[in-house]
Design brief:
Blueprint lengths: L2 E5 L5 H16 L5 H12 L1 H9 L3 E7 L2 E12 L2 E9 L8 H12 L5 E7 L3 H9 L3 E11 L2 E11 L1
Parallel strand pairs: 4-5
Antiparallel strand pairs: 1-2, 2-3, 3-4, 5-7, 6-7
Helix pairs in contact: 1-2
């Protein structure tokens, strides 16, 4: 098994969209409704919105095993050496194989000694929360985000200090 990472360009957006459409139901069907999943996928992963996220400074990376895409992440610099991890998804079939930990180590190395990394995670996504605890994140605050159409993201804001 060969784990590799590819910084995504505009030409790779279809890979990210396909991964999101496959991975989000795996992660969220037991947490939020199918309608909310579809709404959020439309809002976040349309080509137009992904292009805008990249133009706004989000760097996307595709995670591959044996050159096959199995996940992705994105981050942006907030200020100084503080970063925000916007997305971090690995196909559930590839979890518990140390891929998430190796991917996060890659992120930390790529950011070249960040001061902090923040992220948001759904408060009912226990597997993800426990993974983030395992790699050194702590809960910074509880936040509810109105994302429109009557939907909310009920999240923890987590942070990792270096």
């Amino acid at each position: 098994m060969s784990l590799s990472f590819k910084t995504a360009s505009f030409e790779d957006l279809n890979i990210i969209t396909n991964l999101a459409n496959n991975l989000w139901p795996q992660y969220y069907i037991s947490i939020i409704t199918k309608e909310q999943i579809n709404y959020m996928l439309e809002q976040v992963y349309s080509e137009k919105n992904l292009v805008q996220q990249m133009k706004d400074g989000q760097e996307f990376t595709i995670v591959n095993i044996d050159n096959k895409p199995i996940g992705y992440f994105s981050f942006s610099k907030i200020e100084n050496d503080n970063y925000f991890l916007h997305k971090f998804y690995i196909d559930i079939k590839n979890q518990r194989k140390n891929i998430g930990t190796q991917t996060f180590q890659y992120i930390s190395n790529k950011l070249n000694t960040p001061k902090t990394i923040d992220l948001t995670v759904n408060r009912a996504n226990y597997k993800a929360i426990n993974f983030y605890f395992k790699i050194g994140f702590v809960i910074k605050e509880i936040a509810n985000f109105d994302i429109g159409n009557g939907y909310f993201m009920n999240d923890f804001v987590m942070t990792k200090k270096y």
